[in-house]
Amino acid sequence: ATMVQKYQSPVRVYKHPFELIMAAYERRFPTCPLIPMFVASDTVNEYKSEDGAIHVIERRCKLDIDAPRLLKKIAGVDYVYFVQKNSLNRRERTLHIEAYNETFSNRVIINEHCSYTVHPDNEDWTCFEQSASLDIKSFFGFESTVEKIAMKQYTSNIKKGKEIIEYYLKQLEEEGITFVPRWTPPVACKSESSTSHPRRPVSPAINIPETATKEGLSNKEILNTSSSPSEPTAGTPDDKLDADYIKRYLGDLTPMQESCLIRLRQWLQETHKGKIPKDEHILRFLRARDFNIDKAREILCQSLTWRKQHQVDYILDTWNPPQVLQDYYAGGWHHHDKDGRPLYVLRLGQMDTKGLVRALGEEALLRYVLSINEEGLRRCEENTKVFGRPISSWTCLVDLEGLNMRHLWRPGVKALLRIIEVVEANYPETLGRLLILRAPRVFPVLWTLVSPFIDDNTRKKFLIYAGNDYQGPGGLLDYIDKEIIPDFLGGECMCEVPEGGLVPKSLYRTAEELENEDIKLWTETIYQSASVFKGAPHEVLIQIVDASSVITWDFDVCKGDIVFNIFHSKRAPQPPKKDSLGAHSITSPGGNNVQLIDKVWQLGRDYSMVESPLICKEGESVQGSHVTRWPGFYILQWKFHSMPACATTNLPRVDDVLASLQVSSHKCKVMYYTEVIGSEDFRGSMTSLESSHSGFSQLSAATTSSSQSHSSSMISR
Length: 717
Prior knowledge:
Radius of gyration: 31 Å
Helix content: 25-40%
Structural class: alpha+beta
Largest sheet: 8 strands, antiparallel
Number of helices: 20
Distance between the termini: 53 Å
């Protein structure tokens, strides 16, 4: 089995000019006392251009890897050799470093790419980035040991990289070297270098090896080095993370954790163009899955789709909680704890959960809890700014004084569990600490009902105090400043949280009323959901009267991969059987599934394809439109995309065989919205109406610029 590990660094900024950094860098060779494993290096090849601007040097480096004696014995080597090729371009002010292993190159493949370039916003600063991949094909049965050793050595060297440059900068300074002039062309073309601009003459962008563009520099930044200095260029934070920003806003991450964050973020930028979550939120999903990038990506994509489906991005601005909640929901934000985390106080014991569920239904309660969580995210961000350090979670203080059997009412507990489930899935790692005070005798019963639904990581953060224990040593004062302890807990601080109390029965609603309310809340979203099965696509019929209309669509692939098609037919398909379109089809959890194209119809005779098929992967958002050329019937079709058994080998893997046995793997889910616009209403130019993959909150005009896709800016009108 081959294992591939990838690493991508953040951007490290040195506040020194490129030429000085180069002088420091050169001092690492031929050996460097700060890297004991770097025993020696010999120059194998060297090339210098006539004008001295280009200098390429290839070295063979000898490393003494810190590995167990036994392993060295089995492998039969004492030293490992690497080849390192450095390409310095003094005119462009760039250094590109490519390195790969020569020893064991048929068993282990290590590739590394580093670059030193000029900072896009300040030409007296230098940026450093590095990316690497490790592919272990075989190693005498010690593959995982070798992987561990390699990763350990590599990450410790990443940490050292910065120290080494700083060490040699200091050495240069002690020798009185604090400035190294920039390269200028040889005397012959003197006039050019003495122009008023201190910046080098404009020259074409350099050709950078593919890996650099993909993993390191974006083309934009390569081109920036050759644009005129007067143009403001985009700084690092937009599409790149720099090391200082990570430390200040996200916290101390190990190199591999930084790499996971950068790679997941890059993947999101490529697949979810438009609105992607904030860095600290991406990080929460990584933390929740111990930085397993594939698992984190999966839960994050599910959450993004869920946010879109329920318009969660707009909940704080657009949703007003019903008066009953404002009066009887005994919870609210209250200052912050000793660590600077926002503090949420919930007087659960005083709250009539049964009454609230009967008066509001589960949906409105859930929605309220979501708005509280959204507010929590906002407060974390604010506190991060105020306290000057990363704060990514909040503290919750739950007072159980008054808890009784009424709280164990089954539907109430069920509602609570569902709320916990939704919050766990979409707000991972947001609870920093949960203080449970004045736990009464019935508490253990409630606890045994609820605790299995709570993630292990979260459960470790619970502190439970019975009776008045919270006032003693190790109690509340360890976590919350004396000045803000709420009055109802014997503190001096007036706490604005509503006192709760019984919800009057006159406010109760019948199950029917609530059900209608629920449906309204769930389908407040304009999306419909559909299931797509192997052999059973989902199809939607659109009748067009005016030849040049525009059909627009916007859909998310929630599960599985699908193929999207659009067909035209002159004759109407037979209406589908009634049952699949029952009154409850939209709200049924499975979503609807309808076939319109008759089995006897032939493509090309009875109907034709008007757009080429589009393969859409799980987690993708697609928007697009089609300008109709003829009247008649158009059919939008979402079809199951069958996957090859396994891309890498011809032999099916165990997982694939197991997956094919499970019927559920043949089900895909799509959420879609479609609309027809008369050509006269369509203000975009007809030519730009191509399908585009785009953001998932496309209902806010801000997310997709109109140039990117007319269809999405159109939907938002």
